[in-house]
Design brief:
This protein has helices at 49-64, 150-156, 195-205, 235-247, and strands at 17-21, 27-33, 40-46, 79-86, 107-109, 118-123, 129-136, 144-149, 163-172, 185-192, 212-219, 222-232, 253-256. By secondary structure, the protein is α+β, with helices and mostly antiparallel strands. It has three domains: 17-64, no CATH class; 72-172, RlpA-like domain (Barwin-like endoglucanases, Beta Barrel); 185-256, Alpha-Beta Plaits.
């Protein structure tokens, strides 16, 4: 940082303070009179202005991040604006949802409504209403709030004029994707056609292990009774159980919950 020197004329009473600031980024200099009232003592420090500016910026940023209320299309009264429609040359192209656009399906594009949602569109000019599914993004023209497929626009009476005043209201949000269940592991000891043989082995294993159970399975019309041990959260736990069973002389197989044996 560039060093700056200031000259201050006149007598400075004891305890008086004068500040000289060169610019936004430069040092500020304070002159304090010594106890004898003679020469002033010069002290330099970094300007507090940039720090205050940073605090102000953080404050404004936090204000901007405050969540807003419900969007118009989430309100029961709906969002009002102009609807348009689109057909060729977009027919057959990919939409924002990844689906192939079919202009003869009851779909629409919206800038914000989650893809896969169903909305009610009411033509305020003729009173017609229709429920369509949002599978694309748009329109990107000021004043327009929804872009209808050709079929949707035809039923609402929008194809002729090209645009129409409408009200759009969310009626059904897209279904939530369920998280897959965690994989569980088990150790299969044997598989029998005879249920009685399977139960005999089960009783034998219960003397040595916990968590022994039977699984009935049908393969190509044949019924099998499988003797298994445990529902382990990790493959390592299942391997420990398998090694113990192997030490008893059993031939075992470790299975995951996705395995179909």
């Amino acid at each position: 940082m560039k060093s700056l020197t200031y000259r201050i004329s006149g007598e400075i009473p004891y305890g008086a303070v004068r500040r000289c600031t060169a610019s936004w980024h430069h040092l500020s200099t304070i002159y304090l009179c010594d106890r004898s009232g003679g020469e002033s003592v010069r002290k330099s420090y970094r300007s507090a202005i940039p720090a205050l500016s940073l605090l102000l910026l953080l404050f404004l940023t936090s204000c901007a991040s405050i969540s807003q209320g419900p969007r118009a299309w989430e309100d029961p009264s709906g969002e009002q604006g102009l609807a348009s429609w689109y057909g060729h040359p977009y027919h057959g192209r990919r939409t924002s949802s990844g689906e192939v656009y079919d202009m003869y399906q009851l779909t629409a594009a919206h800038r914000e409504i989650p893809l896969g949602s169903w909305v009610e569109v009411v033509n305020l000019g003729n009173g017609r209403s229709l429920t369509v599914r949002i599978n694309d993004r748009g329109p990107f023209i000021d004043g327009r709030i929804i872009d209808l497929s050709y079929a949707s626009a035809q039923l609402l009476g929008v194809v002729g004029p090209g645009t129409a005043p409408v009200r759009v209201r969310l009626t059904q949000a897209p279904p939530q994707r369920q998280a897959p269940e965690p994989t569980r592991y088990s150790v299969q000891v044997a598989s029998f056609v005879s249920e009685s043989n399977a139960r005999t082995l089960k009783a034998e294993l219960e003397q040595k292990m916990t968590g022994v159970y039977l699984v009935k399975a049908q393969v190509n019309g044949d019924v099998y009774f499988r003797v298994r041990v445990g529902r382990f959260a990790s493959h390592a736990e299942a391997r420990t159980a398998a090694e113990r069973l192997a030490s008893f002389g059993y031939r075992v197989l470790i299975l995951g919950s996705d395995d179909r044996f």
